[in-house]
Amino acid sequence: MPELPEMETYRTKLAERVTGQTITAVEVTREKTINVPVEQFVKEVQGASITGVERRAKYVIFKLSTGKSLLVHLMLGGLMHVAEAGEDLERTKQVILSFGERKLLFIGLRLGYLHLLTEEQLAETFRELGPEPLEPAFTLAAFLELMEKKRGALKTTLVNQKFIAGIGNLYSDEICYHAQLLPTRQTNELAHQEKENLYRSILAVLKRGIQYGGYIDLPIFKGDTVTGGYNDHCFVYDREGEPCDRCGQTIIKDEISSRKTFYCKNCQQ
Protein backbone atom coordinates (compact mmCIF):
# COMPACT_ATOMS: atom_id res chain seq x y z
CA MET A 1 0.00 0.00 0.00
CA PRO A 2 1.45 3.42 -0.94
CA GLU A 3 2.67 5.41 2.05
CA LEU A 4 3.80 8.99 2.60
CA PRO A 5 6.85 8.93 0.24
CA GLU A 6 4.83 7.32 -2.56
CA MET A 7 1.95 9.76 -2.24
CA GLU A 8 4.31 12.72 -1.99
CA THR A 9 5.97 11.52 -5.19
CA TYR A 10 2.56 11.36 -6.85
CA ARG A 11 1.71 14.82 -5.54
CA THR A 12 4.80 16.52 -6.95
CA LYS A 13 4.80 14.73 -10.30
CA LEU A 14 1.07 15.11 -10.89
CA ALA A 15 1.08 18.76 -9.83
CA GLU A 16 3.58 19.48 -12.60
CA ARG A 17 1.28 17.94 -15.21
CA VAL A 18 -2.31 18.75 -14.26
CA THR A 19 -2.31 21.96 -12.19
CA GLY A 20 -4.13 24.66 -14.11
CA GLN A 21 -5.55 22.15 -16.59
CA THR A 22 -9.27 21.82 -17.36
CA ILE A 23 -10.93 18.42 -17.16
CA THR A 24 -12.45 17.98 -20.60
CA ALA A 25 -13.91 14.50 -20.16
CA VAL A 26 -14.62 12.01 -17.37
CA GLU A 27 -15.01 8.25 -17.72
CA VAL A 28 -16.03 6.01 -14.82
CA THR A 29 -15.92 2.25 -15.41
CA ARG A 30 -16.49 1.18 -11.81
CA GLU A 31 -19.21 3.00 -9.91
CA LYS A 32 -18.02 1.68 -6.53
CA THR A 33 -14.78 3.63 -6.95
CA ILE A 34 -16.62 6.93 -6.52
CA ASN A 35 -18.96 8.15 -3.78
CA VAL A 36 -21.77 9.77 -5.77
CA PRO A 37 -23.82 8.61 -8.77
CA VAL A 38 -21.81 8.54 -11.99
CA GLU A 39 -24.02 11.15 -13.67
CA GLN A 40 -23.51 13.59 -10.78
CA PHE A 41 -19.77 12.88 -10.64
CA VAL A 42 -19.32 13.59 -14.34
CA LYS A 43 -21.50 16.71 -14.19
CA GLU A 44 -19.55 18.22 -11.28
CA VAL A 45 -16.04 17.24 -12.37
CA GLN A 46 -16.13 17.73 -16.15
CA GLY A 47 -15.36 21.32 -17.01
CA ALA A 48 -13.67 22.05 -13.70
CA SER A 49 -9.96 22.84 -13.58
CA ILE A 50 -7.32 21.56 -11.19
CA THR A 51 -6.19 24.47 -9.01
CA GLY A 52 -3.68 22.47 -6.99
CA VAL A 53 -2.54 19.02 -5.90
CA GLU A 54 -2.01 18.40 -2.19
CA ARG A 55 -1.24 15.48 0.11
CA ARG A 56 -2.40 14.51 3.58
CA ALA A 57 -1.06 11.27 5.07
CA LYS A 58 -1.62 8.56 2.43
CA TYR A 59 -4.12 10.64 0.46
CA VAL A 60 -3.68 12.89 -2.58
CA ILE A 61 -6.15 15.75 -3.00
CA PHE A 62 -6.95 17.35 -6.35
CA LYS A 63 -8.37 20.80 -5.62
CA LEU A 64 -11.05 21.84 -8.11
CA SER A 65 -12.04 25.30 -9.32
CA THR A 66 -15.59 24.55 -8.11
CA GLY A 67 -14.45 24.59 -4.49
CA LYS A 68 -14.74 20.84 -4.13
CA SER A 69 -11.90 18.28 -4.18
CA LEU A 70 -11.16 14.85 -5.55
CA LEU A 71 -9.68 12.69 -2.82
CA VAL A 72 -7.80 9.54 -3.83
CA HIS A 73 -6.69 6.72 -1.56
CA LEU A 74 -4.95 4.01 -3.56
CA MET A 75 -5.12 1.28 -0.90
CA LEU A 76 -3.57 -2.03 -1.99
CA GLY A 77 -2.78 -2.25 -5.71
CA GLY A 78 -3.90 1.23 -6.73
CA LEU A 79 -1.81 3.32 -9.13
CA MET A 80 -2.02 6.59 -11.07
CA HIS A 81 -0.50 7.31 -14.47
CA VAL A 82 -0.49 10.29 -16.83
CA ALA A 83 -0.91 9.10 -20.43
CA GLU A 84 -0.05 11.40 -23.30
CA ALA A 85 -1.72 11.42 -26.74
CA GLY A 86 -1.69 7.98 -28.33
CA GLU A 87 -0.44 6.24 -25.19
CA ASP A 88 -2.42 3.48 -23.53
CA LEU A 89 -1.81 0.97 -20.77
CA GLU A 90 -3.16 -2.57 -20.80
CA ARG A 91 -4.47 -2.14 -17.29
CA THR A 92 -7.98 -1.93 -15.88
CA LYS A 93 -8.87 1.72 -15.31
CA GLN A 94 -11.63 2.60 -12.89
CA VAL A 95 -11.65 6.34 -13.66
CA ILE A 96 -10.11 8.38 -16.48
CA LEU A 97 -9.86 12.16 -16.35
CA SER A 98 -9.02 13.78 -19.68
CA PHE A 99 -7.23 17.09 -20.12
CA GLY A 100 -7.52 17.39 -23.88
CA GLU A 101 -5.32 14.61 -25.27
CA ARG A 102 -3.60 14.04 -21.92
CA LYS A 103 -5.31 11.57 -19.58
CA LEU A 104 -4.94 10.86 -15.88
CA LEU A 105 -5.58 7.16 -15.31
CA PHE A 106 -6.69 5.70 -11.98
CA ILE A 107 -5.74 2.03 -12.07
CA GLY A 108 -6.41 -0.94 -9.79
CA LEU A 109 -8.80 0.87 -7.45
CA ARG A 110 -10.66 -2.24 -6.36
CA LEU A 111 -10.04 -1.39 -2.71
CA GLY A 112 -9.07 2.24 -3.24
CA TYR A 113 -11.36 5.11 -4.20
CA LEU A 114 -11.71 8.55 -5.78
CA HIS A 115 -14.24 10.64 -3.88
CA LEU A 116 -15.73 14.03 -4.69
CA LEU A 117 -15.86 15.97 -1.42
CA THR A 118 -16.64 19.39 -0.01
CA GLU A 119 -14.14 21.15 2.25
CA GLU A 120 -16.22 20.11 5.26
CA GLN A 121 -16.18 16.47 4.18
CA LEU A 122 -12.42 16.63 3.65
CA ALA A 123 -11.92 18.01 7.12
CA GLU A 124 -14.05 15.23 8.59
CA THR A 125 -12.03 12.59 6.70
CA PHE A 126 -8.80 13.94 8.17
CA ARG A 127 -10.16 14.70 11.63
CA GLU A 128 -8.52 11.81 13.48
CA LEU A 129 -5.23 11.71 11.57
CA GLY A 130 -2.03 12.29 13.49
CA PRO A 131 0.57 14.94 12.67
CA GLU A 132 2.48 15.11 9.40
CA PRO A 133 6.03 13.98 10.22
CA LEU A 134 7.71 16.24 7.65
CA GLU A 135 5.94 19.43 8.71
CA PRO A 136 7.87 22.03 10.76
CA ALA A 137 5.49 21.55 13.70
CA PHE A 138 6.67 17.95 14.08
CA THR A 139 9.57 18.81 16.37
CA LEU A 140 11.53 16.53 18.67
CA ALA A 141 9.65 18.00 21.63
CA ALA A 142 6.29 17.31 19.96
CA PHE A 143 7.34 13.74 19.16
CA LEU A 144 8.53 13.04 22.71
CA GLU A 145 5.21 14.30 24.04
CA LEU A 146 3.37 11.90 21.72
CA MET A 147 5.55 9.02 22.84
CA GLU A 148 4.74 9.64 26.50
CA LYS A 149 1.17 8.53 25.89
CA LYS A 150 1.91 5.43 23.82
CA ARG A 151 2.02 1.77 24.74
CA GLY A 152 2.50 -1.32 22.63
CA ALA A 153 4.96 -2.64 20.05
CA LEU A 154 6.97 -0.08 18.14
CA LYS A 155 5.84 -1.47 14.78
CA THR A 156 2.17 -1.23 15.73
CA THR A 157 2.66 2.31 17.02
CA LEU A 158 4.37 3.59 13.89
CA VAL A 159 1.65 2.34 11.53
CA ASN A 160 -1.13 3.86 13.64
CA GLN A 161 -2.42 6.77 11.55
CA LYS A 162 -3.82 8.48 14.64
CA PHE A 163 -0.30 8.58 16.08
CA ILE A 164 1.66 9.81 13.05
CA ALA A 165 0.13 10.15 9.57
CA GLY A 166 1.56 8.45 6.51
CA ILE A 167 3.75 5.62 7.83
CA GLY A 168 2.76 2.09 6.91
CA ASN A 169 4.16 -1.41 6.76
CA LEU A 170 7.20 -0.72 4.59
CA TYR A 171 8.57 2.46 6.16
CA SER A 172 7.90 1.34 9.72
CA ASP A 173 10.38 -1.51 9.12
CA GLU A 174 12.86 0.83 7.47
CA ILE A 175 12.60 3.33 10.33
CA CYS A 176 13.15 0.66 12.98
CA TYR A 177 16.20 -0.58 11.09
CA HIS A 178 17.63 2.93 10.71
CA ALA A 179 17.12 3.56 14.45
CA GLN A 180 18.63 0.14 15.28
CA LEU A 181 15.52 -0.82 17.22
CA LEU A 182 13.62 -4.09 17.04
CA PRO A 183 10.03 -3.54 15.83
CA THR A 184 8.87 -5.71 18.75
CA ARG A 185 10.22 -3.27 21.35
CA GLN A 186 7.60 -1.71 23.61
CA THR A 187 7.35 2.05 23.08
CA ASN A 188 6.98 2.79 26.78
CA GLU A 189 10.23 0.94 27.50
CA LEU A 190 12.43 2.94 25.11
CA ALA A 191 15.15 5.05 26.71
CA HIS A 192 15.19 8.80 26.06
CA GLN A 193 18.13 8.53 23.64
CA GLU A 194 16.38 5.73 21.75
CA LYS A 195 13.33 7.95 21.31
CA GLU A 196 15.52 10.76 19.97
CA ASN A 197 17.15 8.34 17.55
CA LEU A 198 13.72 7.11 16.47
CA TYR A 199 12.57 10.67 15.77
CA ARG A 200 15.61 11.36 13.58
CA SER A 201 15.14 8.06 11.79
CA ILE A 202 11.51 8.88 10.96
CA LEU A 203 12.61 12.08 9.25
CA ALA A 204 15.64 10.55 7.55
CA VAL A 205 13.86 7.48 6.18
CA LEU A 206 10.80 9.33 4.88
CA LYS A 207 12.98 11.94 3.16
CA ARG A 208 15.11 9.14 1.71
CA GLY A 209 11.96 7.43 0.42
CA ILE A 210 10.92 10.63 -1.36
CA GLN A 211 14.43 11.17 -2.71
CA TYR A 212 14.36 7.75 -4.40
CA GLY A 213 10.82 8.15 -5.74
CA GLY A 214 9.06 5.80 -3.37
CA TYR A 215 8.18 2.14 -3.76
CA ILE A 216 5.89 2.25 -6.80
CA ASP A 217 5.46 -0.41 -9.51
CA LEU A 218 4.59 1.90 -12.41
CA PRO A 219 6.20 5.14 -13.67
CA ILE A 220 3.87 8.11 -13.27
CA PHE A 221 4.46 9.17 -16.86
CA LYS A 222 6.33 7.88 -19.89
CA GLY A 223 10.04 8.58 -19.47
CA ASP A 224 9.78 8.86 -15.68
CA THR A 225 13.03 7.40 -14.33
CA VAL A 226 12.64 8.51 -10.70
CA THR A 227 9.38 6.96 -9.50
CA GLY A 228 9.84 3.54 -7.91
CA GLY A 229 13.53 3.98 -7.21
CA TYR A 230 13.18 3.02 -3.57
CA ASN A 231 12.44 -0.55 -4.67
CA ASP A 232 16.21 -0.97 -5.08
CA HIS A 233 17.22 0.86 -1.89
CA CYS A 234 15.32 -0.88 0.92
CA PHE A 235 17.28 -1.54 4.10
CA VAL A 236 15.25 -4.59 5.15
CA TYR A 237 11.78 -4.54 3.61
CA ASP A 238 11.08 -7.55 1.39
CA ARG A 239 14.71 -8.70 1.80
CA GLU A 240 14.13 -11.90 3.78
CA GLY A 241 17.20 -14.15 3.66
CA GLU A 242 19.52 -11.45 2.32
CA PRO A 243 22.54 -10.15 4.27
CA CYS A 244 22.11 -7.01 6.36
CA ASP A 245 24.05 -4.11 4.81
CA ARG A 246 25.18 -3.01 8.27
CA CYS A 247 26.37 -6.22 9.93
CA GLY A 248 26.10 -8.96 7.33
CA GLN A 249 23.69 -11.14 9.30
CA THR A 250 20.58 -12.57 7.63
CA ILE A 251 17.46 -10.40 7.45
CA ILE A 252 14.46 -12.26 8.81
CA LYS A 253 10.74 -12.01 8.15
CA ASP A 254 8.30 -12.12 11.03
CA GLU A 255 4.69 -11.19 11.75
CA ILE A 256 3.60 -8.52 14.22
CA SER A 257 -0.12 -7.87 14.70
CA SER A 258 -0.82 -9.77 11.45
CA ARG A 259 1.60 -7.55 9.52
CA LYS A 260 4.65 -8.93 7.75
CA THR A 261 7.77 -7.43 9.28
CA PHE A 262 11.41 -7.47 8.21
CA TYR A 263 14.39 -6.75 10.46
CA CYS A 264 17.92 -7.74 11.43
CA LYS A 265 17.91 -9.49 14.78
CA ASN A 266 21.64 -8.87 15.20
CA CYS A 267 22.06 -5.11 14.88
CA GLN A 268 18.56 -4.05 15.92
CA GLN A 269 18.17 -4.16 19.68
From TrEMBL:
It catalyses: Hydrolysis of DNA containing ring-opened 7-methylguanine residues, releasing 2,6-diamino-4-hydroxy-5-(N-methyl)formamidopyrimidine; 2'-deoxyribonucleotide-(2'-deoxyribose 5'-phosphate)-2'-deoxyribonucleotide-DNA = a 3'-end 2'-deoxyribonucleotide-(2,3-dehydro-2,3-deoxyribose 5'-phosphate)-DNA + a 5'-end 5'-phospho-2'-deoxyribonucleoside-DNA + H(+). GO terms for biological process: base-excision repair. Residues 235-269 form the FPG-type domain. Residues 2-105 form the Formamidopyrimidine-DNA glycosylase catalytic domain. Its cofactor is Zn(2+). One of its GO terms (molecular function) is zinc ion binding. Pfam families: Fapy_DNA_glyco, H2TH, zf-FPG_IleRS. It comes from the Bacteria. PROSITE patterns: FPG_CAT (PS51068), ZF_FPG_2 (PS51066). InterPro entries: FPG_cat, FPG_Glyclase, FPG_N, H2TH_FPG, Ribosomal_uS13-like_H2TH, Znf_DNA_glyclase/AP_lyase, Znf_FPG/IleRS. Keywords: DNA damage, DNA repair, DNA-binding, Glycosidase, Hydrolase, Lyase, Metal-binding, Multifunctional enzyme, Zinc, Zinc-finger. The keyword Lyase applies. Coiled coil: none annotated. Belongs to the FPG family. Monomer. This is Formamidopyrimidine-DNA glycosylase. The lineage of its organism: Bacteria, Bacillati, Bacillota, Bacilli, Bacillales.
